[in-house]
What does this fold into?
Amino acid sequence: MFRNKNILIGITGGIAAYKILELIRLYKKNNANVKVIMTENATNFVTPLTIRTLSNNPVYTKQFEVDNLFPEHISLGSWADIFVIAPASANTIGKIANGICDNLLTSIACAFSKQIIVAPAMNCEMWNNQFVQDNINKLQKAGYEILSPEAGFLACGTSGVGRLCAIEKICAATYEHLKYKNQKLKNKKIVITAGGTRENLDPVRYLGNHSSGKMGVALANEAYNLGADVILINTFNHKAEYKTIDVSSALEMKSAVEAEKQDADCIIMAAAVADFRIKNQNEQKIKKDDNDETLTIELIKNPDILYEISQSKNENQIIVGFCAESENLIENAKTKINKKQCDYLIANDISRKDIGFSSDENEVYILDKKLNIKKIDKAQKSVIAEKILEYIYGEN
Ligand code: PMT
It folds into this structure.
């Protein structure tokens, strides 16, 4: 979500400062680099040591550190992609809105040219104070995003509007601002398949597999964040900001891929497609006959979608397949890329419980037609997706 993104947090003096410990963890869990500055008042509520331990970075509290060659308000500002001030006290909001720079946090805010998010938290009477509201309006007009406090029980013993908004909301707002920064796949149409196909036996039963669709969704999300026009053909009714098409069987998936393939720049087949379907699908539920100890089902081969689109691809199209193997991963992947004739093949070991099917993480090898192999170490599927797209689009 935040890979390669630098998030600067400013903590001011308020009891909600303790909630920022969780915010730091959330950003870090989503692969952000986090640095934190604290006002002197903030250090009364949480210790710099705690923040340093969670963020894995030094914590900045003083405006003038004698050891530093460059002033922090310039260097930290250049480092950060976004500045999130939370909790923001009435005092700090007032200073920033009126151009006062009497500590490191307010100086950075004044010198910061990128997006600033402000999440106020204070007593409800303070929040309703006319001067505070005027200052909030000023910041809003200047392009700051204000995440208004929420109503509820306050630490001062009263109830009203003043609580820091949910940290998930701060995280989501941060993401909204950062996601459009790198648009390197803008104007590219990328078709991705995800999930396991279902081959109906009768109206009740089907042949399926363990694919959850997480790998395909991770690729779709990442491509979308990079500005691509994404079409996700999936078997689990996924809904997203980009176009999704619901399918069930391999034949339905093939029709959907064919309908979208003509003007696609890239097609990525992350779905686990059944190699066979039921030869004679039953219109009615198959009845159990008490005399039968076995049931024989005849299967017929499904078309190989990946092979067919690789055969008929346009000159500049990139076709990417996945390769799910439970043994001899690399050897089988080499054979498979030759057979399927796609441009890239992403091989993963589906015998492992910690990666592959259904898990949140994966570890893959990317093969190209010349049989060059690049390993991507075990990581969240979102990170794997990011690295696959980076590789395909030339940052390997
Ligand atoms: O969905 P998750 O739970 O996140 O799990 C991810 C995954 C393990 C499903 C994914 O990483 C993966 O490996 N997908 C491919 C699964 C598969 O069908 O592999 P395969 O080796 O059997 O097929 C090779 C390629 O041919 C695949 O790109 C597949 O989509 C394609 N194929 C297969 C059969 C067929 N009839 N038509 C096809 O196009």
Residues 211-215, 250, 269-273, 275, 302, 304-306, 321-324, 348, 350, 356-358 surround PMT (CB under 6 Å).
